[in-house]
Amino acid sequence: MSLKRCAIYARKSSEEGLDQDFNSLEAQREACAAYVLSQRHEGWRELPERYDDGGILGGTMNRPGLQRLLDDVRAGRIDTVVVYKVDRLTRACRTSRRSWRSSTRRGCPSSR
C-alpha cells in the first residue's frame, strides 16, 4: 500500500460568520478529514497544511489558498485533493477542468 498525501481545500463565499470558532470552513474541513480518515486503510493521510479561502467567490481563480494548493500539486507535494463539494474549487466547470488538467499533467491524479 502506498501513502497518499491528501490536501483538504475549503472555501466560503462570504465573510459572514468567519470570525466564529466553528464556521462553514471548519465544517467543510471536518467532513473532509473524516473522509480521509475513512480511507486510511488505502494509505490516505491528511496533510497538516491548510488550504482555505474565506470570503472569496468561486468564480475567480485568484484565491491565495487555491493558488498555494495548485502550487503544491505542481511541486509534487500532494497526491490527492479532497473537497466537501466540487463547487468549493470553482463555480465554472470549464475553469476547473483546465486547472486540474494542468495539475494532473504534473502527477496529481484526478478522480473521475
Automatic annotation (TrEMBL):
Protein name: Resolvase, N terminal domain
PANTHER family: DNA RECOMBINASE-RELATED, DNA-INVERTASE FROM LAMBDOID PROPHAGE
Organism of this sequence: Albimonas pacifica
Superkingdom of the organism of origin: Bacteria
One Pfam entry name: Resolvase
Ranges where the Resolvase/invertase-type recombinase catalytic domain occurs: 5-112
InterPro entries referenced in this protein's UniProt entry, alphabetically: Resolv_N (IPR006119), Resolvase-like_N_sf (IPR036162), SSR_resolvase (IPR050639)
CDD domains per record: Ser_Recombinase
UniProt-listed SMART domains: Resolvase
GO molecular-function terms, A-Z: DNA binding; DNA strand exchange activity
Entry's transmembrane regions: none
